[in-house]
Amino acid sequence: MPSFPPRLHVLLAKHAETGIILRRGPSKSICTIAWNRRQDIFSVGQWLRGRIYERRSDLSPDGKYLIYFAMNGHARSETGGSWTAISRAPYLKAIVLLGKGDCWHGGGLFTGPRTYWLNDGYGHRVLSQCSEVRRDLEHRPAGNYGGECPHVYYNRLQRDGWTLRAEVSTRGCDVFEKSLPNGWLLRKFAHAQVHPGPGKSCYWDAHELEHPLSGQRIEGPSWEWADLDSRRVVYTEGGCLYEIKLVSRGALTKTLLADFGPLRFEAIRAPY
Where are the domains positioned within the chain? Predict the structure, then answer.
């Protein structure tokens, strides 16, 4: 049985220098990792035996709350085996818990520091609530991309400055672009495949960096996630997080920020 490095997906706070890294691996274990983006300091939040659908998750603009959709398959539990939760980042312990029982829809997006849109679809069951956050019943996402991961993910990308290039998107691959400092352009190739191949889920991304004026291009076919952080590009590959400093011309070098491969499951209590 081949082994694969952990998969990494990152949620960046829009108005704070923080982030949450979702580290999945082995396939039925996932943990949250707090990222201090000012100092590039990392600390494990909490582990879960199950699956978090990272493309249906979001981090509040101030980085204080996390909304996520999860599944552990325990059909006889109070959640029915899947649920949407809101927690105090970087932890997973729910302050809002909504039972689902299936994997249609679920998750959501923050519409403000304390308000969230719920990807409700066929409905959730309220198991616990909290006055710290409230559901935004007026919000309607700008785009409609079905009931699963793309509906939350594509709306999150466009909210955060990515442009969907519908004219160059093809079946099974949607192309997003983001303009970067010094004339650079970052592209995200969002794939959806029934049989994606070993080591990939049905939804997976590839990336490339291009400087149209100079003709420079850096291909990132194995970059699982990438985005702009201030004046640098940060991306994940092979269980590691890297940065590339953007310059107007000349060779670009990557720097390893952290290797999350050695992490192993640990039972951690949330401090609330």
Answer: 7-259
